[in-house]
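Quick one:
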Amino acid sequence: MRTPWADGPAYVTQCPIQPGGTYTYRFTIENQEGTLWWHAHSRWLRATVYGALIIYPKLGSSYPFPKPTHEIPVLLGEWWDRDPIDVLRQATFTGAGPNVSDAYTINGQPGDLYRCSSKGTVKFPVNSGETVLLRIINAALNQQLFFTIANHKLTVVAADALYDKPFPTSVLMLGPGQTTDVLLTADQTPGRYYMAALAYATGQNVPFDNTTTTAILEYKSAPRSAKSSKPILPRLPANNDTATVTAFTSQLRSPSKVNVPIKIDENLFFTVGLGFLNCNPGPRCQGPNNTRFAASMNNVSFVLPTRTSILQAYYQNIPGIFTTNFPPVPPVKFDYTGNVSRALWRPVFSTKLYKLKFGSTVQIVLQDTAIFSTEDHPIHLHGYHFYVVGQGFGNFNPKTDTAKFNLIDPPQRNTIDVPVGGWAVIRFVADNPGVWLMHCHIDSHLTWGLAMSFLVENGVGELQSIEPPPPDLPRC
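Output:
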């Protein structure tokens, strides 16, 4: 709270740390327990620069479930057989979609379903009968992922560093940026079982990495013959299995009744999705039908400054860096998930922020669009957790869909996957002053501008105001 200088997005809250430079992030964790993660937030550096951030219960308190025997961080990643920055440069130059990755990884290793990587396959040893807490993080750059373990049920107990009402499942889906904590009981015949992750891909005619990464859950008491045999492979969902995703996400609930904002001060409606820029045929126009890809919220494609960060410009009153006229609703209403007119394909490029008063209550309808293709978008809001009060498919209907909101025990997240061809509604209280980026966590979409930022004003007094910038803040 009050430390947006420690948030990290380049040119939003700070300028990048220069080669050879250092910067110490200082922040206070409040009202969070469970699994978060840290990662680079400059270009595509987070493809390799990331790690787990685990928040344990306070001394003297414990988990709201039986204490597991031990804990295992499981980081799902994405790997290219070339420098990811080169992949980004090529896509930026051509205007086309980026080359898809060559592998997914579990704790840095692809697993033995890929050629030449069997020796490095990650193994997780367990004792029969014990319960293990898996802290699963989707650190993949551009892909939502299914996760499952052969023959084992998983009990979901937390997501995005907040506990939920426990429920069993055999398959998880995590969008990039999301975390899920699950309990696993080693109650199967001693042997070797694959844990596996593969793509949940929703964009029509959009290429994706159709490989499967694996690690091995190995019972210590397994007979020698079992330890030398091929592990059991789980039943894997189809890459477009939206029904399984919906069944999973619909079970997420807060553990008990929560204080959802009821009276709304800011009622916002944001369209999210891809668009196109028309251009002359050539090497810089290799998107569909000689176009370049773009992306936007409410038809505004977010442009990062280059000479200072937005937060520094706000704090130091530097003019000409941003405006505060981000539209609260789409400039033009249309059939968002239907046949969209070509006149609506091209977004406006700008650094527009939306200003919120300290303490105001906010509702945002996040609506997927079909300008290029309907697609599941993992939308992440920096600086906040929010309540997910409703989700559905098609165009959001305020008359009928509002009546179905869960205002009793909705889940809290910091990243919400907006359903493919659908919508999600979130609510939060703007009580953390600063500049906070809201963006799609598919980094190719962020590169194309699928983002915006909130400017949350200071409240009254020191405890409702941004702390001064630290002395080692990177220079612009």
